[in-house]
Design goal:
single chain, 370 residues, alpha/beta, 3-stranded antiparallel beta sheet, 12 helices, globular, binds pyridoxal-5'-phosphate
């Protein structure tokens, strides 16, 4: 090789590998077989084909007496790592669990006696009850304020602000920047539930001390797969009160006490996984971790915004369009037209995910006569 050859080859060898192109909304849509009129991702997502295949194959193996615990453990780690990429934190900061309420309970029970917690009026109960229980025990003091006043309500006495990034009942998006600015001024911590956000909009969990996400909605996993991210600075404040064998440094070497060596990082907050659910979750999370979520947000919110405009309610920039329906008439009309929507807290909710198109929007508008 001449010196010219060598210097020509060098830049190619040193240049970083090109990251794989992100999946466009149309490419992501191609992984789903959802029927027209399914507008209920805010209640329950639907699995991509790869999840159905993984679950079906496992059912066959399991029923023939060939279950493989190692395969389940590998799916948990694959899901953890895909989720970590999705929300921009290292996998060491991600704990696995099964429900938001259980992970929120750990956060609530770990706060020091007398701590003041700020919550959102009407937030999903899994983010509220764990704190109210601790208040009833006389351990915490809780204040609930409207979503719009959350940032302004942070006081020097506030220890933790706990809120859903996207509200379940209304689809409203919290002003996370304003909350972060306020907690920064007052020295409080943040605990954010991203269940109704992850999957249709970009989410950066590294901005918060703790986040939780149940993945059976917009991330299209089976129910029973949830994650908690814990910033390194908050890990010492959280008590691994629910530790079992999965919280051990060596999971399969931690099956019996009293020897206990808990895992480093957020893994010590892991609980043993509902195995089969994770087999379905891993492929779904891989897909969303590869998706262009800014483009997914644009496609979902464009449909929701048009629906709001046609109904005459103010658009919120959310993928969930929700408006008052006290009599249930709108929900009934949608159901009669073959639309799967949902009714919550006196409202009807229509959720636009990546599989929904302008045809779904027209179906909804026809059913509502707008
Ligand atoms: C914002 C939010 N968090 C959490 C959940 C689910 O809570 P859990 O995992 O405790 O069942 C829901 C379900 O609707 C939700 O909307």
């Amino acid at each position: 090789m001449t010196s010219t050859d060598a210097s020509e080859a060098l830049p190619a060898r040193l240049s970083p590998p090109t990251p794989p192109a992100l999946l466009s909304p149309a490419e992501l849509r191609g992984h789903f077989d959802v029927r027209p009129g399914y507008l209920a991702a805010c209640t329950m997502g639907v699995p991509p084909r790869s999840s159905v295949e993984a679950l079906t194959a496992d059912l066959a193996d399991w029923s023939h007496g060939h279950p493989e615990a190692g395969r389940y453990g590998a799916a948990v780690e694959q899901a953890r790592s895909a989720y970590a990429r999705l929300v921009s934190v290292p996998a060491e900061q991600v704990a696995v669990g099964s429900q938001v309420s259980v992970q929120a309970s750990l956060v609530a029970a770990s706060l020091p006696e007398g701590a003041e917690v700020l919550l959102v009026d009407g937030d999903f109960s899994s983010m509220v009850f764990p704190f109210l229980v601790q208040q009833q025990l006389g351990r915490l003091s809780v204040r609930c304020v409207p979503l719009e006043s959350l940032a302004a309500a942070v006081l020097p006495s506030t220890a933790l602000v706990a809120f859903s990034l996207v509200q379940s009942a209304t689809g409203a998006i919290a002003d996370a920047e304003a909350v972060l600015e306020a907690v920064g001024r007052h020295g409080a911590a943040t605990f954010c539930d991203t269940t109704q956000a992850c999957g249709w909009m970009p989410v950066d969990a590294s901005r918060f001390d703790v986040t939780v996400c149940h993945t059976y909605k917009w991330l299209c996993a089976p129910r029973g797969v949830s994650f908690m991210t814990v910033a390194p600075s908050y890990q010492e404040k959280l008590v691994p009160a629910q530790a079992g064998w999965y919280a051990g440094s060596d999971v399969w070497g931690s099956c019996y006490g009293p020897a206990m060596a808990l895992a480093p990082g957020a893994r010590r907050f892991d609980v043993s996984p509902a195995w089969q659910a994770w087999l379905g979750a891993a492929p779904a999370l891989e897909l969303f971790a590869r998706a262009d979520l800014e483009a997914v947000r644009e496609s979902c919110t464009a449909l929701a915004t048009t629906l709001c405009e046609r109904i005459g309610v103010p658009p919120t920039g959310s993928a969930i369009a929700a408006w008052p329906d006290p009599s249930g008439a709108a929900f009934a009309a949608l159901t009669a037209a073959g639309v799967t929507a949902s009714a919550r807290a006196g409202r009807v909710r229509v959720a636009f995910h990546v599989w929904n198109t302008a045809d779904d929007l027209e179906l909804v508008c026809r059913a509502l006569g707008v």
